[in-house]
Each structure stands twice: as structure tokens, then as C-alpha cells.
Amino acid sequence: MSDRKPAGEFLDAAIELLRQVRDEEAGSIEAAGTLLADTVQNGGRLFAFGAGHSSLPAQDVVYRAGGLALMNLLTVPGVVGVDVMPATLGSALERVDGLASAVLDSSPLRAGDTLVIISLSGRNALPVEMAVHARALGVRVIGVTSVAYASETSSRHSSGTFLKDHCDIVLDSRIAVGDAELTLDTVPAPFAPASTVVTSALMQATLATAAATLADRGVEPPLLRSGNVDGGHDWNRRVLEQYADRIFYRR
């Protein structure tokens, strides 16, 4: 191996991206967290969706110790995660017109809810159609995406638009097109993606803002505790029962 230290270079790149979103997305994070707090306070429900690896930050905020109990995962069969076989099928399904509308029409989402849609490129039919149809249903939409894709790639949706064009609030992950932070002369392709690190941080920053905003308003945030600390299960049982009509991952 050369004298280069790819582990350190990747961590430095990830840290720099986190600094960028901290400094440049602060207003959007505040707005997104406030929208989540408004939704909770007004009796709405929270949902998160991501396809493929973009599903990882969505799953990370559902039934999560230290997270909001009201965050539900919106699932689309075959695209949430990489457990579908073959894994390439998930990528193909993201390009299918009509799939998002069919899923939303059979989901519990309703007017007054908020849906977080995570899509790194924001160019495929599924996230674009999901945002369009959700807003038509009266659902507020937060998009978490890399805005760079809209200027450097073409849309795969019939409208020619991207996820960012159909959101109430957009959180820009600042990830470069291709999602690979490192190159080496001896490696034929760029490598070391950072989108999961940055997108997960954006999600947690947004939920932290929502929890603090609720507390500032005198509303106890519906937070879950770790089941691995004393009293955690009892705490969670109380919260889950109190908000049972707005939680769908127990059904």
C-alpha cells in the first residue's frame, strides 16, 4: 500500500461534509424539525421512506432509542433495503411509473401527516412520484437528497423533474454525484461512499430539532428510550400506548 491513509482520508471527507451541512443547511434543518414538531403537536403522523441504501437512514429513525416514537417506516415492497433477490431488482423498481401512487393509496398516510423522502439522486420515478402524490393527498414532504444531481444528471421521471422540485422543505446532503469520496491510481473506480453517514446525521439533527422544539412549547416529546437501560421497557410501553393510534410498526 502507498503512504496514503485511505481510512483517515475518508473520515476527513466525511467530517468536512458534516461541517458543510451543519453550516449551510442549518436553516433547512430548523425548518424541517419545526415541521415535524408541528405535525406531532397537531395530531399528525410521521413517516420516512428511502429506497435501496437510502432506506438505511429512514430505518435508523424508526423505533429508535432516543428517537421520536411517532416516526413510521413507509415501505414499498422490493425496494426497502437490499434483501430482495436479486438485489438489482430494487434498482429497477425505483424506475417503475405508478408504483409510488399505488403504495400511497393503500398506506395509512392522510392529510396533515408529514413524509420524509430520502433519495440521494432524487432522479428516479419512485421518489419523484411519491412526493407529487403525497402532496396531492395533503401530506407535507421533506426531501433529503443531493441537489447536485439535478444539475449534473437527467431525471428518470416523465416530468423531467427531481425530488427536490416537489418538496415543502429540502435538506441537501451535499454529496457529489457518484457518491464516492476517494480515488487511487491503483483502483479503477472511485470508492468510499459517505452518503449514509451524512444523511443519517441530517435525519438525527432534524429529529433532535423537533424534540427540542416540542419541549420549548411545553409539549413532552414522544421519545423512546433504550430497552437496555433499567426502566427503558416501562418507559417505552407508556409512550407506545399513549400514541398507539399514530404508530404503525406495532401492527
From TrEMBL:
> Per its UniProt record, what InterPro entries does this chain match?
RpiR-like_SIS, SIS_dom, SIS_dom_sf, SIS_GmhA/DiaA_subfam, UPF0309
Task: Return the protein name.
Answer: UPF0309 protein KVH32_19440
SIS domain sequence ranges:
36-220
Similarity comment text for this entry: Belongs to the UPF0309 family.
Write down the superkingdom of origin.
Bacteria
Q: Which HAMAP family does the UniProt record give? A: UPF0309
Q: Write out the transmembrane intervals.
A: none
Q: Which SUPFAM superfamilies match?
A: SIS domain
Q: Which Pfam families match?
A: SIS_2 (PF13580)
UniProt cross-references to Gene3D superfamilies, sorted A to Z:
Glucose-6-phosphate isomerase like protein, domain 1
Q: Which residues form the signal peptide?
A: none
